[in-house]
Amino acid sequence: MRILHIADLHIGKIVNGYSMLEEQSYALDQVLHMIKEHEVEALIMAGDIYDTRYPSDESVKLFNDFMTQLIPLNLHIFIISGNHDAGTKLAFANKLLAKQNVHIVGDIKDGYNPIVLEDEYGSLNFYLIPFIRPSDVRVQFEHVSSYDDALKAVIDHLSINENERNILVGHQFFSSGSEVTSDSERLLVGGIEQVSYTHLIQFDYVALGHLHRSQIVKEDHIRYSGSLVKYSLSEVNDQKSVILFDIKEKGTLHIQKLALTMKHDFKHVEGMLEEIVALDATDDYMFVTLNDDYAVDAIVQLKVKFKNLMNLDFNNARTKASNQITTISNIEAIPPLTLFNNLYETFHDEPLSESQIKIVNKIMEGID
Question: What contacts 257, CB < 8 A, 6 or more positions away?
Fold first, then answer.
């Protein structure tokens, strides 16, 4: 069976005041093309479908449009909720959708029994485990006190036939000690969220979401697909991709990565203001670091070249002396909406919604 593994769509995400819906639509169009081109038989979406538990109307429409285009392709679709999703809302009408071969699990209670597909090699069992916290399973497993305890208890509770092929879909921070994270993930302080990868070795393939960089977790068959779109400065040099794998008889697995492109890429440039404003104009999302000690009207000049100026900071003698890049002296160079969004996210653990951004923009227009 040929299967495509994607994760961390984060539909509706806003980065420094910029909506990523256009980029997400562009990425999903590529996924649709890949499904058709490679004759994919099953699609896995390993959590964080939306960026917030309360997605905007535009976000819901984009995902609905994507699903509407998938249904006629006659493939099996497996979806779990991530830590950004509202599991019960995401899984609305999941029993009805299952009749259309769309399998959605937003509550661990629905994840213990596998969804079984048959092909010429026998049974292929899909275990869908949504993002869980220790409190989600403590009623059933009283001894659970950590994320690792919780996942071990859940996996031990599964009835796994080791003579058949078994695929697990999950959305946790599974760790072997060498994982690479990015600034756009919401990970808990101190690593308390980490779960040992050893709980996963018994599966024939493990399709993970949560970490935004595509990577292997110790074993070749345990993988994070990574996000479809770049969401932070730390991902500027990343090559976004999805994972296509063929699973035939037990023990036979062929895995490849398919590259994704962005309509407007994330780029970072550093140098003197005079040098940077001499660069070609671009619609890409630009992170600019200036080495000038003083830069009069820097943001105005940069906006002429880079209409999607994502962020401006400074790296000069003063910032090096204070061991920080951004100082109060250049806060004026940061777009007000970005400052407000960062403050809001600090207190509410999620960015401004589309509707909130519109309200803030109206208020700022009134101030101007």
Answer: 214, 241, 242, 243, 244
Closest by Cα among 40, 51, 29 to 212: 51
pLDDT at 322 (0 to 100): 64
Listed by start position, the domains of the chain span 2-259, 266-367
For 247-274, the pLDDT digits (tens) are 999 999 999 999 999 999 999 999 999 9
Q: How far apart are CA 148 and CA 314, in angstroms?
A: 41
Q: Which stretches of the chain score pLDDT less than 50?
A: 189-190, 324-325, 327-329
Q: Which superfamily does CATH assign the domain made up of 2-259 to?
A: Metallo-dependent phosphatases (3.60.21.10)
Place of tokens 């920080």: 324
Residues in Cβ contact with 104 at an 8 Å cutoff, skipping those fewer than 6 apart: 79, 80, 90, 91, 94, 97
341 CB-near residues (< 8 Å, 6+ apart): 14, 16, 17, 351, 352, 357
Yes or no: say if 8 and 82 are a contact pair by the CB < 8 Å rule. Answer: yes
How far is the C-alpha of 254 from the C-alpha of 171, rounded, in Å?
22
As given in the structure block, the two tokens for residue 345 are 């996210």
Q: Write the DSSP symbol of residue 281.
A: P
Residue 321 identity = A
pTM reported for the whole predicted model: 0.84
Supply the DSSP string of 18-80, one letter for each residue: EE-HHHHHHHHHHHHHHHHHTT-SEEEEES--BSSSS--HHHHHHHHHHHHHHGGG--EEEEE
